[in-house]
Design brief:
single chain, alpha+beta, 71 residues, 41% strand, 1 helix
Length: 71
């Protein structure tokens, strides 16, 4: 489904995930212009882990534990 999450300050984050046999995807966008889209072959938590790693690398999810809010 579609999810909107207030983050620090005045930034709002939205996300949508998708799961199909053998495929998983997630898109995350923020009102500050940052975000990412990840699509992988396989099922499980890899998509959430990748989104968190991208967010931490680019500074828009600093200090959040892996898979926080991503399932």
């Amino acid at each position: 489904g579609w999810f909107m999450t207030p983050t620090t300050g005045r930034v709002t984050e939205g996300q949508h995930n998708g799961i199909n046999n053998g495929f998983t995807s997630m898109i995350v966008w923020r009102t500050d212009g940052m975000g990412a889209a990840v699509m992988v072959n396989g099922e499980g938590g890899l998509v959430g882990t990748l989104i968190e790693a991208i967010g931490q690398e680019y500074g828009w999810r600093p200090g959040r534990p892996a898979n926080a809010g991503c399932h």
